[in-house]
Design goal:
single chain, Rossmann fold, 6 helices, five-stranded parallel beta sheet, alpha/beta, binds flavin mononucleotide
């Protein structure tokens, strides 16, 4: 079994979303010796943003790319290969300004590849990264769960479905990190309970 863990906090140390993602992976690995874990920390090892040069590279036919363009596309190819190889994907996803971090958006931009991870059929988009279980560790300063302010979850959920990763998604919430020490303790205890309830 292959687990892919994507950490998307801008903090490479002390991030709550990474703490939860780590704990989910620990829980999934517990008692098994057939698990391989691949981790990508997008703070310490960032993926480049989708800028004009990257778009130019992606839309240039492979046999006409410059070495720089080929190298840029290869960075996205590597992330696609990682997610294709995974049976389980665990994503640490803090809320920044009502959305995902730029680090996670860059990962989305890298793995959304027409004809490879999604295609359009007669009834609309078809995700191609199917057959995987996904866990998302959400860490927030405020309280957004089940409220119209949870624009991040809507985006995340829609994206995961778009590329076929939305078949079996479990969200773990740790909310209220900007609301004082008591709320932080409650949030962490609640996240720990949610992780404990994950079937090994
Ligand atoms: C730049 C920035 C923007 C943030 N925006 C929001 C927000 O829109 N809503 C919210 O509830 N918390 C917001 N927060 C608080 C974080 O979601 C919270 O601190 C979270 O625990 C960070 O996750 P991490 O510890 O995994 O990095 C923001 C924090 C930062 C640094």
């Amino acid at each position: 079994m292959n687990i892919l863990q994507i950490n998307s906090s801008a903090r490479s140390q002390g991030a709550e979303s990474t703490r939860i993602a780590d704990a989910i992976v620990t829980k999934l690995v517990d008692g098994r010796n057939d698990v391989s874990v691949t981790r990508r920390d997008l703070a310490s090892d960032p993926h480049p943003v989708l800028d004009e040069a990257a778009l130019g590279a992606l839309f240039t036919p492979a046999d006409q790319r410059t070495p720089e363009q080929a190298a840029r596309v290869a960075l996205d190819d590597a992330l696609i290969a990682q997610v294709q190889a995974a049976d389980i994907v665990v994503i640490g996803a803090p809320t920044y300004n009502f959305g995902v971090t730029v680090q996670l958006k860059s990962w989305f931009d890298a793995i959304a590849r027409a004809g490879v991870t999604f295609k359009y059929g007669p009834t609309g988009p078809v995700g191609l990264l199917t057959g995987k279980k996904v866990y998302v560790a959400l860490s927030r300063g405020g309280l957004h769960k089940d409220s119209p302010t949870d624009t991040q979850l809507m985006h995340l959920d829609m994206f995961l479905k778009f590329v076929g990763l939305g078949e079996d998604v479990q969200y773990v919430f740790s909310e209220g990190h900007g609301m004082g020490a008591e709320m932080v303790a409650k949030a962490q205890a609640s996240a720990n309970d949610q992780i404990a309830a994950i079937a090994a």
